[in-house]
Write a structure and sequence with these properties.
This protein has 231 residues and is mainly alpha-helical. The chain has one domain. 37% of the residues lie in helices and 8% in strands. A hairpin with a 2-residue loop joins strand 2 and strand 3. The longest helix is centred in the last third of the chain and has 15 residues. It is globular. 16% of the residues are buried.
């Protein structure tokens, strides 16, 4: 949701239609699935070819690329080339940043004490499908909640079915492998701020960082609609 809001700035290449769609209807369609664990199947996907790297913590493909190798991949992507002169927005879900990304623009959402309980419950709802003492990890299940299914052909078969005895402990153990709770380079935003805080403070930071303002009125409606569904 935050990344889509960033793309409303003229400094960033478009992910969605321009002019922007109705913010409430767009958010309800793409970020407010009535079935929680189907959320990943409806959220917007990158328009760029990102097959040369993986943003998932579980795999390292692309982590060791050089700046030049990354530039070559981008130069072979027609959509990326059409956005030349703008930032190319993408999600990154690992706890570290590869060398080829150093010096680029980074906006980090931090887990903090005030958001921890909410985040664990949300992960429990959207990442897993529970059945007695077994659980399916939908991010690793081909045909499950995987948003870019074709990319999974690039990886060996991944275990997605696990046994568990304590649901809360299972979720916490998985969460601890991916937890980001310390500030890094760029703009750092606490998750609790996205849930409850004054978004104008967030938009001010991002506007200054990108150099051109995002569409604040549109983004505020997106955020409010998202909050009403998930908080």
């Amino acid at each position: 949701m935050l990344l889509i809001c960033c793309t409303s700035s003229d400094a960033v290449g478009d992910w969605i239609e321009n002019p922007l769609p109705d913010p409430v209807e767009f958010t309800k369609k793409h970020f407010c699935s009535p079935v929680s664990n189907q959320h990943m199947s409806v959220e917007p996907q990158t328009p760029y070819d990102i097959g040369w790297y993986t943003r998932n913590q579980k795999w390292t493909r692309g982590d060791d690329l050089t700046h030049q190798e990354v530039d070559n991949f981008i130069d072979n992507d027609p959509i990326a080339l059409s956005h030349k002169g703008k930032y190319l927005a993408n999600m990154w879900q690992k706890t570290y940043v590869p060398d080829w990304f150093r010096g680029q623009k980074l906006v980090t959402i931090l887990n903090d004490p005030d958001s921890r309980a909410w985040l664990l419950q949300r992960r429990k709802e959207i990442f897993y499908e529970w059945d007695k003492n077994t659980v399916e990890h939908l991010r690793y299940k081909v045909g499950g909640g995987v948003p870019i299914k074709s990319y999974y052909k690039l990886f060996p078969t991944t275990q997605y079915l696990f046994e568990y005895t304590d649901k809360d402990k299972f979720v916490l153990d998985e969460f601890n492998k991916e937890n980001v709770d310390s500030e890094g380079e760029g703009v750092n935003i606490k998750l609790s701020t996205l849930l409850n805080g004054n978004m104008d403070i967030v938009w001010d930071k991002i506007d200054n960082y990108l150099g051109k303002p995002l569409d604040r009125q549109w983004c505020n409606k997106v955020t409010q609609t998202w909050r009403e569904r998930w908080h």
